[in-house]
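[User]
Um, tokens okay?
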Amino acid sequence: MVGLFCKTGGKSNDTISSVIRFLRPKANFSLNEEEKKLTKSWAETLEKDGIAPLGNYLTKETCEDLERWARTTPAVPKPDRPGLAKTLIPNPENPEAEGYYFLEQDLVNNTHIQRLMTDPKLLSLAQNYLGCEPILSIVAMWWSCAGKFSGDAARTLAQMYHFDMDRPKWLKIFFYLTDVEEKNGPHVFVRKTHRTGFIPKEILDRGYARLTDEEVSRHFSEKEQMRIVGSRGSTFAEVTRGLHKGLIPEEKYRLVLQLEFCNSLFGGSYEKDLSIITDGKKSEWEKTFAKYQNTYRRIKIKNN
């Protein structure tokens, strides 16, 4: 799929997605008229620019709870190197690696994340952009730290410019769980490069490669390279088939939660099934999983 994308400038993905949109109907998410207008405007901005700010979507309390969880739950340190444990309890003030990545299976059993996975406004945003009922394809969370332990960290941890090629069509929603200022490793997106034909042929001819700042700056101005800073709770949606990266923190750290919604699971290879353990009581999020089984086809509910 990457090869076709690079050869056609994105037309191959557009063609596949038009067929999927025809075959897969939309779902009916429970929103009032004001919420419908809001999610439609988010999707229109996303279609136009490749990125849409969603404001401070998370409360301070939710961010604090998730940060506490992320300080007490084992994560995979990256990049891997000799002598480094396979999993560690993150200590972002005194890191042993530049990044810590949490297991998806652990993430989907966190109640805050379950609420976001089933949030009707986020589901509606995804549906409006994709043109069909969305599929929850990835749940991710990671620390990016200012420590330097590996010469290849920027390449390994997506801290050099690149484009993703996860599915025929998808969007990712990023939640800043800590304050992210200029020196804390903000996310950077090159505006409008998600559009077909907007990534220069010179870049596409390199295939799925990491790009230096100089290579990207030959084609795009500093203004077009948008740095996303914000307080904890700040949230934005992005089409990551456009050029993007996460800056390496110069100071402190950054904790990010990410949800990906797509139109088809064709493409990238990820763990197929995720198990959520319940006590047998029908919570609101569990009812949502049952109602929209196509959206949550990766989720399997298991009673404790």
